[in-house]
Amino acid sequence: MSRDSFRFPAEWEPQSAVLIAWPHAGTDWADRLDEVETTYVALAAAVTRHQRLRICVPDATVETRARSLLDAANVARSQVEFLRVDYDDTWLRDSGPITLRAADGRLCLLDFRFTAWGGKFQASRDDRLVEVLHAQGAFGNAERRRIDFALEGGAIETDGAGTLLTTWQCLHERHPDASRQALTEALCTWLHQDRVLWLEHGALEGDDTDAHIDTLARFAPDDAIVYQACDDPADSHHAPLQAMAAELAALRTRDGRPYRLFPLPWPRPILDAGRRLAASYANYLIINGAVLMPAYGDPADTQAAAVLAAAYPGRDIIPVPCRPLIWQNGSLHCITMQLPQGAV
């Protein structure tokens, strides 16, 4: 694979589909399955108004249940495709393929090792998900490249032009013996990037990913960064997120200019049996013509939608109810993986 022939596209570039895995009784969602399925149905309805949705299911029973729920919500069947594959859980941002695209339309699926965020959970089936789907022909003629290096899609952000954004906390936790220079070189080589911007601060309580960047800060078009802010001095997140905001303000574009910054509002604390849940507006999903925004039933939802509308002009901003998702420590972006144009 020639390093010069492929590129890591930004999320706002044209897509073929979004890939998800349906929750079922054999996943960690079992105790609140009905509740979380409402989020998946809302997600499916939003995606299929703009592009195709590919849904992983382990068996016919789960597929039948998913179909019935989608039909009841009038989700267009023509926009939905089911893929049969076993999986441990549904966080496809981290177990799904990271796709590179060449100018001639060729695709390369990077299949990094998935360790369930440093061995926190069982992940043997999730680690084989890309391999199994590729063997089934789910990605057409796309090349698959297995990389024996632990990396999750939620840990990295690209602007599509050779700049990667990530957090030191996450990558250092996965690879404690690797130097920053070694990690930078590895990421640049595999992901075809020219430079890596590292954030030292920022993490959310209730997040077991060790500070994935997609809960904190996201690239937007025209040298912009959207990030999760915290304006409540009494909140435990205030100091680290203020420090992260200062880091973002100090970053420079390739031509030496500061990035245009879009701070997202801070939702009120959401607790579950006394446990703080990681509610972040930064965990949004970009699709063709729209941005799907995690909504938490908070007054800040409206302000967050306005910020995203300013950062992504010309796109519909569609709220998706995500309180059920954060019970399992992730949100909207975490359960999805976009597939670039030509992948379906």
Automatic annotation (TrEMBL):
Keywords: Hydrolase. The keyword NAD does not apply. The keyword Ribonucleoprotein does not apply. It holds the Pfam family PAD_porph. This is Agmatine/peptidylarginine deiminase. The lineage of its organism: Bacteria, Pseudomonadati, Pseudomonadota, Gammaproteobacteria, Lysobacterales. One of its GO terms (biological process) is putrescine biosynthetic process. SUPFAM superfamilies: Pentein (SSF55909). It comes from Thermomonas hydrothermalis. GO terms for molecular function: agmatine deiminase activity; protein-arginine deiminase activity.
